Amino acid sequence: MRLVLLGAPGVGKGTQAELVSSQFKIPKISTGDLLREAVRQKTTLGIQAKDYMDRGELVADEVVIGLVQEKLSLPEAAKGFVLDGFPRTVTQADILGRWLESEHIALDHVLYVVIPSEHIVDRLSGRRSCPACQSVFHITSCPPKLEGICDRCGAELIQRNDDRRETVESRMLVYTNQTAPLIEYYKEKNILTELDGFGAVDSVHARLVNVLTQV
Ligand code: AMP
């Protein structure tokens, strides 16, 4: 299964990608996670990417394409993968398409995850993330058992710099201008399905699995 999760920041792509990854035993390739890891490790790439990420802007296409190709070429991605946060521009989508074609493979689904726009700011500003295992919580809708501590690995939860209210607006603008055109792009290729991402994580996941197993 080769899958892309597309949608605005905060619609729950990362959470659903994680569930798909463990249910279907395919790697989740999240460019946001890969970039945050590079920032933590202070690699050259991470140092270059940090300011863009903190401002809510996109990191250069060449940088993310390199990261994704490296992961897609690993043996564990041979049977499938779920891409989260990539592609985010038409250039990225074109390059991904060409790469897949050269490997004689194709995407099976692009799921366009949608929630009512008025909930997006709340989802992002209330989000708390685990810097160690990437688990995601929300201060009201999905709080950790112990405040500020990751249920899964015990690390201290943080608020991502780009989840602060002041940055969320620019991320939404970037999404509208640079990423939303991918909706038409994949519609034209007849592989886009809209997925209602509103509601409990389990209900959304059930709807998602329904789409994946229907075709
Ligand atoms: P995310 O965790 O997917 O919300 O990504 C966090 C940030 O990482 C984004 O706001 C961008 O700065 C950067 N980023 C993640 N994926 C991409 C991508 N495919 N292209 C460019 N920048 C990206």
Task: Please give a handful of descriptors for the protein shown.
Rossmann fold, 7 strands, 48% helix, binds adenosine monophosphate
Mind explaining what this structure looks like?
With 215 residues, the chain is an alpha/beta fold. It has one domain: 3-Layer(aba) Sandwich (Rossmann fold). The chain contains 9 helices and 7 strands. The chain has helices at residues 13-24, 31-41, 44-55, 61-72, 90-102, 120-125, 165-179, 181-188, 201-214, and strands spanning 2-6, 28-30, 81-84, 109-114, 127-129, 136-138, 192-196. A 5-stranded parallel sheet has the order 2-3-1-4-7, with helices on both faces. A two-stranded antiparallel ribbon has the order 5-6. A hairpin with a 6-residue loop joins strand 5 (127-129) and strand 6 (136-138). Helix 4 (61-72) runs parallel beside helix 5. The protein is globular and about 45 Å long. The chain starts with a strand and ends with a helix. The structure holds adenosine monophosphate. Residues 9, 31-32, 35, 52-53, 56-59, 64, 85-86, 88, 92, 162, 171 line the site of adenosine monophosphate (AMP).
What is the molecular shape? globular
CATH homology superfamily name? P-loop containing nucleotide triphosphate hydrolases
Low-confidence stretches: none
CATH class: Alpha Beta
What string, H for helix and E for strand, traces the elements in order?
EHEHHHEHEHEEHHEH
Largest β-sheet summary: 5 strands, parallel
SSE topology sketch:
Elements: E1 2-6, H1 13-24, E2 28-30, H2 31-41, H3 44-55, H4 61-72, E3 81-84, H5 90-102, E4 109-114, H6 120-125, E5 127-129, E6 136-138, H7 165-179, H8 181-188, E7 192-196, H9 201-214
Parallel strand pairs: 1-3, 1-4, 2-3, 4-7
Antiparallel strand pairs: 5-6
Helix pairs in contact: 1-9, 2-3, 4-5
Adenosine monophosphate binds near residues 53, 57, 58 and 162.
